[in-house]
Amino acid sequence: MPEASYPHPVTVLDSRSSRAQVGPRVVGDLAWYGERWQRWDGKKWKAALYSLQPDVLRAQAAPPTWPELPAHRLDRVLALAVERHVMDHGGTVIHEGPHGPVLGYPKTVNHLLYAVLTVLTFGIGAFFWLLAVLERREERIQLQVDKWGHVWGQRGASV
């Protein structure tokens, strides 16, 4: 579909964790935290990464009252979110699964810090620098879109 058929552009929302909710939580639970709706990702309450309807997330109306979007628009917002993460945040699409795409982000090594430590420790720091480079891992995030057009990130294990 042409871009003009989507009157609401994808809006990037700032993601930050919030205080915990009392009681048992299930991944995907939504909760209102004073200024926006947030979703439990298994470890923290997180704001949506992207949304076609950002005003809905900032209004106190309950999720059952939110307007649902057709499947083709949901596919489009997920594709736009993946594109933004690849272009803006250096993510790599690792897998296209039935629950959403999985993106990988390589963890960086602070080479300047290790260079300074190597000089200060008369070369001993080079051993730890080499270990840090060889043990560099990848952080993984699965992007999921809900029926209202909000894209949420679910952290996976670091590999």
Give a written overview of the molecule:
This protein is of the alpha+beta class and 159 residues long. It has one domain. Helix content is 28%, strand content 25%. It contains four helices and nine strands; from the N terminus they run E-E-E-E-E-H-H-E-E-H-H-E-E. A six-stranded antiparallel sheet has the order 1-5-9-8-7-6, with helices on one face. Strands 2-3-4 form a three-stranded antiparallel sheet, with no helix packed on it. The protein is elongated, with a radius of gyration of 20 Å. It starts with 10 loop residues before the first strand and ends with a strand. The model is unreliable at 1-21 (pLDDT under 50).
Q: Describe the largest sheet.
A: 6 strands, antiparallel
Based on CA inertia axes, which overall geometry fits? elongated
Major sheet: arrangement of strands: 1-5-9-8-7-6
H/E element string? Answer: EEEEEHHEEHHEE
State the helical fraction: 25-40%
How many strand elements? 9
The whole-angstrom Rg is 20 Å
Based on helices, strands and strand pairing, what is the structural class?
alpha+beta
Strand content: 25-35%
Uncertain spans, ≥5 residues at pLDDT below 50? 1-21
Protein name: DUF2510 domain-containing protein
Organism: Nocardioides endophyticus
Transmembrane segments: 112-134
Keywords: Membrane, Transmembrane, Transmembrane helix
